Amino acid sequence: MTKNPQQNSTSAVTPIPPEDPIATISFPEQTAVSPLLARITNTAIKQGLKTDTAEYLVSSDNKSSVQSTEVALTLKGDYPKLRQFFSDALSDTPTLAISKISLNRNSINETELNAQLRYRLYWSAK
In angstroms, rounded to a whole number, what is the distance separating the alpha carbons of residues 117 and 96? Predict the structure, then answer.
C-alpha cells in the first residue's frame, strides 16, 4: 500500500493571518480634521459647485483608535462637475468614504442637479 506524503505530514501548517488593512492606512490626526474638511469643500467650490448646507457629526468610540466625522453636504451643479468633485475628493483624501449620494433635478430640461452627499472622514484619536 502506497502512502500519500500529504496524508502523513507530521508538521502542522499554521495559516498566516492576512495583514490588517487598517494598520496600513495613515490616518490624519484630529488637528488635521478641520483643514481637511475645508479642503474638501474648497474642492467642490473650485469645480464650480454651489454649496448650500453642511452638517457635521463627530462619532466617538472610546475602544477604537480610529474616529470619524460624518458630513452631510448639499451641492448644486451639473453632472460632470459633481462627478469630478467626487473623484478629486476621494483621491486627495484616502481616509474619506462616501456613504450616500442622492441626485435629482427640478425638471428634465435642467442641467443643474441637486446633490445630497453624505460622507465620513476617518482620523486617528491617538
Answer: 12
Which helix (H) or strand (E) is 42 found in, with range? helix 33-46
Sequence-distant contacts of 101-109: CB under 8 A, at least 24 apart: 103/79
What is the tally of structural domains in the chain?
Answer: 1
Q: What is the CA radius of gyration of the chain?
A: 23
- DSSP letter at 38? H
Residue 90 lies in a domain: yes
Q: Which residues contact 13 (CB under 8 A, 6 or more apart)?
A: none
**Residue 60 within a domain:** yes
Q: What pLDDT, in 10s, does the model give residues 2-44? A: 555 555 545 566 665 566 555 667 889 989 999 999 999 999 9
This prediction has a pTM of: 0.75
Query: What is the domain-level CATH number for residue 33?
Result: 3.30.70.60
